[in-house]
Amino acid sequence: MKPINVGLLGIGTVGGGTFTVLARNEAEITRRAGRPIRISIVADKEVALANKVAQGKAKVTNDAFAVVNDPEVDIVIELIGGCGVAKELVLKAIENGKHVVTANKALLANHGNEIFAAAQKKGVMVAFEAAVAGGIPIIKAVREGLSANRIEWIAGIINGTTNFILSEMRDKGLSFDVVLKEAQRLGYAEADPTFDIEGVDAAHKITILSAIAFGIPVQFDKAHVEGISKLEADDIKYAEQLGYRIKLLGITKRKENGIELRVHPTLIPVRRLIANVEGAMNAVLVQGDAVGSTLYYGKGAGAEPTASAVIADLVDVTRMHTADSAHRVPHLAFQPDALHSTPILPLSEVETSYYLRLRVEDKPGVLADITRILADQQISIDAMIQREPGEGEDQTDIIMLTHVTREKHVDAAIAKIEMLPVVKRNVIRLRMEDLAG
Hints:
Blueprint: E1 4-9, H1 13-24, H2 26-33, E2 37-43, H3 47-54, E3 59-61, H4 64-68, E4 75-78, H5 85-95, E5 99-102, H6 105-122, E6 126-127, H7 138-145, E7 151-157, H8 160-172, H9 176-186, H10 194-197, H11 200-214, E8 224-225, H12 233-241, E9 244-255, E10 258-269, E11 281-288, E12 292-299, H13 303-320, E13 351-361, H14 366-376, E14 381-386, E15 395-402, E16 405-406, H15 407-417, E17 428-432
Parallel strand pairs: 1-2, 1-4, 2-3, 4-5, 5-6, 8-10, 10-17
Antiparallel strand pairs: 7-9, 7-11, 9-10, 11-12, 13-15, 13-16, 13-17, 14-15
């Protein structure tokens, strides 16, 4: 049978991995897809490098638009990244009637609605398994494997760089800045790590998962995004003493009045499996009404893990290449005309538990003043520890865990607590999730 011809945009780490895995597992992939899948043309600015990887098995060009305009190309793989020329190329490929496979979470989180609408109009597929959690097939799991379920919530460790940093901070008691430098030395963090450490990368991914889980448009601009750069080693230590681990989580929940969509450092009970995911690994926990809790774990980045997801999409598209577009799996799991405009809730309306750390003068009556303010906001305390001040110290840390309450009530309480003369620095506030099934 005639091979399906693929045009590859970008032959860096993931592109090279895709080329390697396709060649190594060619016979197995052909048996699964029903016909051979062949990368026939590659576009990359680094032509010499592209020729070295392609080894004469594909035509090489430095003109990406030549690929999306090539009449022989059936599927375009976009691995350039970003929302600039990548968006132009994807939309042009769709306009030309080509299917698209992409690992570009930023593009989909910011412009997915436009891209999916264009693909729907032209009757082509946009596949993006590699955009979320690398080699973990989480998109297929939520979109297809759990389609019988009403998804209640998703919580995921979906950025390996930040998970590595948090694991090292906990294991070695080091500060964020020290561990970040080590992560950069080892290649886990970029020279400019902003997207990772400030939570943007995780927010792109949870935005996509939220849309698939709840049948809503992608709405990255409404996500609450908070990273780990201000996290202190003391809080990781105190959390451990209280039986919790701190992870950067992407969280999305279905609530009566809307959808929660947020990324932030989160305390998780040590007894939860996801709390024990260490190093650069990823894990996603999905709660469905029929199946209960399901956990998906694996490598969230890297050449071959991500290539695994890219090629899985190639196989899916190849299988459905000639199928009636109305009978393909919808991009966002729900039929396009059945998407809801359910609102994304503002952070002030989020309901969860909280970890509060207060630096206060060590004197009588301080605790009574603080608990009175909390009570006024209807915030109840679940657990508390008070550090014994060292010799000669006149200040101490009080750590409180609250029961579930609303963010706006915590905001009001913190504002009043920080006005107390006995409170010596801004209150440290971290959110907590029990993640019980």
